[in-house]
UniProtKB/TrEMBL annotation:
<dbReference type="InterPro" id="IPR004013">
    <property type="entry name" value="PHP_dom"/>
</dbReference>
<dbReference type="InterPro" id="IPR052018">
    <property type="entry name" value="PHP_domain"/>
</dbReference>
<protein>
    <submittedName>
        <fullName>Conserved domain protein</fullName>
    </submittedName>
</protein>
<dbReference type="Pfam" id="PF02811">
    <property type="entry name" value="PHP"/>
</dbReference>
<dbReference type="GO" id="GO:0035312">
    <property type="term" value="F:5'-3' DNA exonuclease activity"/>
</dbReference>
<dbReference type="InterPro" id="IPR003141">
    <property type="entry name" value="Pol/His_phosphatase_N"/>
</dbReference>
<dbReference type="InterPro" id="IPR016195">
    <property type="entry name" value="Pol/histidinol_Pase-like"/>
</dbReference>
<dbReference type="GO" id="GO:0004534">
    <property type="term" value="F:5'-3' RNA exonuclease activity"/>
</dbReference>
<feature type="domain" description="Polymerase/histidinol phosphatase N-terminal">
    <location>
        <begin position="4"/>
        <end position="69"/>
    </location>
</feature>
Length: 286
């Protein structure tokens, strides 16, 4: 069975490979089904789908939204969306506007610390309409301020760090509704990054989101331990949510993530998990 990866990013947001290059990599890595889930944009979907048709890789339309959960960031993956849906397009424009309001403030904070950086440099590094913190990190690497993007987040850009500026976000229910109105399947991304980590804390949250229209949880993720995966799978079973998995591949900006490598040991999604995903998402493929 070919590999499956339902979480990847291209240069349309903060990845380092173009959608076409990403699909070509999927082909080389034996990934037969890939979802392109760029941050707050679907601009790369058409190119990815065209490349997928040419290279024999099945592409699932996707997007990743940032929403506000108790003043902390939560991510929602949306699968099988209609990229041209006007409600979705308006929602994405709103999210990009929030980013545009935040980015100059990050510049100001970095400059106040004596770091010579300009918005023009970050825009050039991004090369797209969606500018995110990883682009700031790459500029800091090029300037020799830090050795890696991970270090940039650890010292400056991560939550609670000196140059971190929170941006306005949708509420989880708003994000879920936006994805559902675009014909999508909303899935909670990498739950390991939520503050609530105990079973008893996560259960009511997932029940609330399920009632709002959430359909799945990304239980399989490279930074989830075997214990984490078991916990999230059990939570999915108790709340009636589907289980998905993805690498969160970004390319050079996140070299630890490899396309198609989902398990803690670097292995692919188990075959039985892939089969279950195909059963519920397959008939609805774009």
């Amino acid at each position: 069975m070919k590999k499956m990866d339902l979480h990847s990013h291209s240069t349309a947001s903060d990845g380092s490979l173009t959608p076409r290059e990403l699909v070509a990599l999927a082909k080389r890595e034996g990934v037969g089904l890939m979802a392109l889930t760029d941050h707050d944009t679907v601009d790369g979907v058409a190119e990815a789908r065209k490349a997928g048709e040419e290279l024999g890789v099945q592409i699932l339309n996707g997007v990743e939204l940032s929403v506000d959960h108790e003043h902390r960031e939560m991510h929602l993956l949306g699968y099988r969306i209609d990229p041209g849906n006007p409600v979705l397009q308006e929602g994405l424009r709103r999210l990009i506007h929030y980013r545009e309001e935040r980015n100059p403030k990050i510049i100001e904070r970095l400059r106040s610390m004596g770091i010579p950086i300009t918005m023009e440099e970050v825009t050039q590094e991004a090369g797209s309409t969606v500018i995110g913190r990883p682009h700031f990190g790459r500029v800091l690497v090029k300037k020799g301020v830090v050795a890696s993007v991970d270090e940039a987040f650890a010292r400056y850009l991560g939550s609670g760090k000196p140059a971190y500026v929170p941006k306005e976000r949708l509420l989880p229910e708003e994000g879920i509704a936006l994805l559902r109105r675009a014909g999508g399947i909303p899935v909670l991304a990498h739950p390991i990054f939520l503050a609530e980590q105990s079973y008893s804390e996560l259960l009511p949250l997932l029940q609330r989101l399920k009632a709002a229209g959430l359909m799945g949880i990304e239980a399989y993720y490279p930074e989830h331990s075997v214990h984490d995966i078991r916990k999230f799978v059990r939570l999915a079973e108790e709340t009636g949510l589907y289980v998905t998995g993805g690498s969160d591949f970004h390319g050079g900006g996140k070299p630890s993530a490899r396309l198609g490598c989902i398990l803690p040991d670097g292995g692919p999604l188990p075959e039985e998990v892939q089969k279950r995903i195909e059963e519920w998402i397959g008939p609805c493929m774009n």
